[in-house]
Amino acid sequence: MKQKEKKLIAERLNVLVANTAVLLMQTLNYHWNLKGPEFNDYHKLFNQQYDDLFVYLDDLAERVRVVDGIALGSMDAMIKHATIKEDKGKVPTPQQMIQKLFEQYEYQIAEYRDVIKFLEKDTDDFGSINLLEDMLMKHEKTMWMLRSLLGR
Fold first, then answer.
1. 85/52 Cα distance (integer angstroms)
2. CA distance linking residue 106 with residue 101, whole number of Å
3. Cα distance between the two ends of the chain
4. Distance in angstroms (rounded) separating the CA atoms of residues 105 and 84
5. How confident is the model over 19-73, as pLDDT tens digits?
6. What is the CATH number of the domain that holds 120?
7. Which of 43, 82, 110, 151 is geometrically suited to a Cys-Cys bond with 18, CB 3.0 to 4.6 A?
8. Of all residues in the chain, what percent carry a pLDDT higher than 70?
9. 3-class secondary structure, 121
10. Measured distance CA(127)–CA(9) in Å, rounded
11. Count of domains in the chain?
12. What's the pTM value of the predicted model, to 2 decimals?
């Protein structure tokens, strides 16, 4: 890969790093502040989701390094580069938490698809494509679970 190509790949991957960090923090927030009859089931679900998100965050940041980029490493940088919006309002109801997470996973999946298309069209970075395709399938499964909880 050429240096210019690596730089573009790292930039696109860092947006996914930032979005994953925001989604991770939101999921932790919901996990910590959950209450109501759904507590036990949702608490376990959010725990699994934030465990998965941390692994994705680490894998994405390491991939940025593989392509000779500098992985984002501060919350300030994450917020500045993220295209996904964090939930800063009052603590939502459990059903609202599921709805908001569903919307963010839906957005994140679209971002993954965009980056994969870019990589397929403009690079020969098969390692990043493979990583993102695997993560995309896992995000789709999470979104399916959230959608099911919403009764859709």
1. 20
2. 8
3. 43
4. 10
5. 999 999 999 999 999 999 999 999 999 999 999 999 999 999 999 999 999 999 9
6. 1.20.1260.10
7. 82
8. 100
9. helix
10. 11
11. 1
12. 0.94
Tokens of 75: 């919350």
Q: Which domain holds residue 51?
A: 3-149
Q: Which two tokens stand for residue 127?
A: 């390692």
Cα separation values, 94 from 29, 136, 140, 145, Å: 12, 25, 21, 15
Give CA–CA dist 29/26, Å, rounded. Answer: 5
In this prediction, residue 110 carries a pLDDT of: 97
**What would the DSSP string read from start to end of 62-102?**
HHHHHTT-----SHHHHHHH--SPP--SSPPPHHHHHHHHH
The answer to whether 127 touches 63, Cβ cutoff 8 Å, is yes
Cα–Cα distance measured from residue 72 to residue 25, given in angstroms and rounded to the nearest whole number? 15
Q: Which two tokens stand for residue 138?
A: 């896992």
- Give CA separation, 118 vs 32, 44, 105, 114, 141, in Å: 37, 35, 20, 6, 23
Q: What is the pLDDT of residue 29?
A: 95
- The structure tokens 């994705």 sit at 56
Phi, psi angle pair for 121, to nearest 5°: -80, -45
